TrEMBL record, chain B:
This is 2Fe-2S iron-sulfur cluster-binding protein. The keyword Cell wall biogenesis/degradation does not apply. Keywords: Iron, Metal-binding, Oxidoreductase. Pfam families: Fer2 (PF00111), Fer2_2 (PF01799). Gene3D superfamilies: 3.10.20.30, [2Fe-2S]-binding domain (1.10.150.120). It comes from the Bacteria. It comes from Streptomyces griseoaurantiacus. Residues 1-18 have a biased composition (Basic and acidic residues). Residues 43-119 form the 2Fe-2S ferredoxin-type domain. Residues 1-39 are annotated as: Disordered. Residues 24-34 have a biased composition (Gly residues).
Length: 332, 223
């Protein structure tokens, strides 16, 4: 690890000002990914700005019916929060499907969104990686890429985003709240992470020095049936080979709203817009789910060794959707 | 083991003792030697470890695990992977289980740490077990590990113990896990079935695969 200076920010404004004053600085939340990457010297920040004690904690009710979850809320606390469990079950399930008890006790909401890919080429500074070292090439494209993307990848990068939480947030139409020198703004989680294109070094739409202050869960998906299912190489404590988060609203025998996102298959949570469009207005039948999911999967372009992810994702998506459908179809 | 930049106290009277020069103990890659380090790259931090307050000036790179083992000579917590993947370094931070290998000590100023050495003191005196052959007292879970033969080489054991103590507290506080029925009522204690114990301890790897006996030992001490 390279030596670094450490600053503890007393306020959001102070943190952002400190970042502007220290080029190359990184914000420190729980550090469960950042410190690991610093040990690997993938990250070599000259300055860490500790934002873990900023007043960005807790989960608050919003006047219009949604929830605000602070950037420094630990993953375990967010997963256990009664309002999250009751109104946005997919989010709680996704958080609990990720990492270990120890890591969830430390990892923060903001840091979870900003965690980096676990692509082995990215994590090994002796290997080519366009995300870590733009222009050095992609080792995974023709190398070991069983765990990599099947949607939206480019010849510059085939990495996936590793978060479970972000997949649920994307399906639930949550927004990321950001604060920077240009002020406050919010971005849909589904549009926060980028596809790699020619610039895989940019994971997200965050601007230099911007700080995540929280996430906003909308009233529109509150209380709707939602769920998360994840497939991995072992029963627990592993990243997703593929995962699916879905929220489904059915009224009068017709799907009124569908939010579906795939995890572990793209550089960002893959919002299945084609499937959603096909479902809205249709009856929530098995045939309709198959038709919709297959429409989405038609856009998949697997690599040499990860074609298995397409039928895997299909099975997960159909399971989650059929699980949600009867619960909505039957009158309360 | 106290270096020139380390002061210990049993209460809040421990004073900051920042001496920015001179090599400290444990000059390994984790950042022990302070001699050639710029001032900006070290900080003074106060931690309460197993009930004793320590104020140390450390290289900012110092993670809690290295501070415990090399500066405080508390070698119970083990360095397995050093990347948060094996759980051997698990300790309790403000009562919650964490991987000490991923926590910069400077970010923990004012925090309370319990290592495996401090576990017996967490148990109510009436539940504390006498040690083997007149040794130190044991936490009931340590006694259960002995009785159930829940380890072979023992390297992962301190982490397993701290993790299980933390996991039991989480379940009592109503924290769900991946295998908890999503319909289970929020906020109520979660009964720890074997499936729950296995899931909740999945962040602690055991190279000897002593898992079945670890699960039994944990079952023995459930509230």
């Amino acid at each position: 690890m390279k030596p670094f200076a450490y600053l503890r920010a007393g306020s959001v404004e102070e943190a952002v000002d400190a970042h502007a004053a220290h080029p190359g600085a990184r914000y420190l939340g729980g550090g469960t990914n950042l410190i690991d990457l610093m040990k690997l010297e993938v990250e070599r920040p000259p300055v860490l700005i500790d934002v873990s004690r900023l007043p960005l904690e807790g989960v608050r009710e919003l006047p219009e019916g949604g929830l605000w979850a602070g950037a420094t809320v630990r993953n375990s606390d967010l997963a256990a929060h009664p309002a999250v469990r009751d109104r946005y079950p997919a989010l709680s399930e996704a958080l609990l499907a990720g990492a270990s008890g120890q890591l969830r006790n430390v990892a923060t909401t903001g840091g979870n969104l900003l965690q980096r890919t676990r692509c082995p080429y990215f994590q090994d500074v002796t290997k080519p990686c366009n995300k870590r070292e733009p222009g050095s090439g992609c080792g995974a494209l023709e190398g070991v890429h069983r765990d990599h993307a099947v949607f939206g990848h480019s010849r510059h990068c085939v990495a996936t985003h590793p978060s479970d939480m972000a997949v649920a947030l994307a399906a639930l139409d949550a927004r990321v709240e950001l604060y920077g020198t240009e002020g406050r703004r919010t971005v849909p989680v589904a549009e926060f992470h980028r596809l790699p294109g020619e610039h895989p070094e940019r994971d997200t739409e965050i601007r230099p020095g911007e700080l995540i202050t929280g996430v906003v869960l909308p009233a529109a998906t509150a209380g709707l049936p939602s769920a998360y299912r994840k497939a991995r190489d072992r029963a627990s404590y592993a990243f997703a080979l593929a995962s699916v988060a879905a929220v489904l609203e059915v009224a009068d025998g017709v799907v009124r709203r569908a939010g579906i996102a795939f995890g572990g298959v793209a550089h960002r949570p893959w919002r299945a817009r084609r499937a959603e469009e096909a479902l809205v207005g249709a009856a929530p039948t098995e045939d309709a789910f198959e038709h919709a999911v297959d429409l989405e999967l038609a856009a998949a372009s697997p690599l040499r060794d990860n074609a298995f992810k397409v039928p895997l994702t299909r099975g997960l998506a159909l399971d989650v959707l059929t699980r949600l459908a009867p619960r909505t179809a039957s009158p309360a | 083991m106290d270096g020139p930049h380390h002061e210990t106290g049993t209460g809040d009277r421990a004073r900051e003792s920042a001496r920015p020069t001179g090599p400290g103990p444990g000059a390994s890659g984790g950042g022990g030697a302070l001699g050639t380090l710029p001032d900006a790259c070290r900080s003074t931090t106060t931690l309460r470890v197993n009930g004793v307050s320590h104020t140390l000036t450390v290289d900012n790179r110092r993670v809690l695990l290295d501070l415990l083992r090399e500066d405080l000579d508390l070698v119970g917590a083990k360095k397995g992977c050093d990347h948060g993947q094996c759980g051997a370094c698990t300790v309790l931070l403000d009562g919650r289980r964490v991987n000490s290998c991923l926590l910069p000590a400077v970010a923990l100023d004012g925090c309370e740490v319990t290592t495996v050495e401090g576990l017996p003191a967490l148990a109510p005196p009436e539940d504390r077990e006498d040690g083997e052959n007149g040794g130190d007292p044991l936490h009931p879970l340590q006694r259960a590990f002995l009785e159930r033969d829940a380890f072979q080489c023992g390297y992962c054991t301190p982490g397993q113990l701290c993790s299980a103590v933390g996991a039991i507290a989480e379940a009592v506080a109503g924290h769900p896990s991946h295998v908890t029925d999503p319909a289970a009522p929020s906020g109520e204690p979660v009964p720890l079935t074997r499936e729950e114990i296995r899931e909740r301890l999945s962040g602690n790897l055991c190279r000897c695969a002593a898992y079945p006996h670890i699960v039994e030992a944990v079952e023995d001490v459930l509230p």
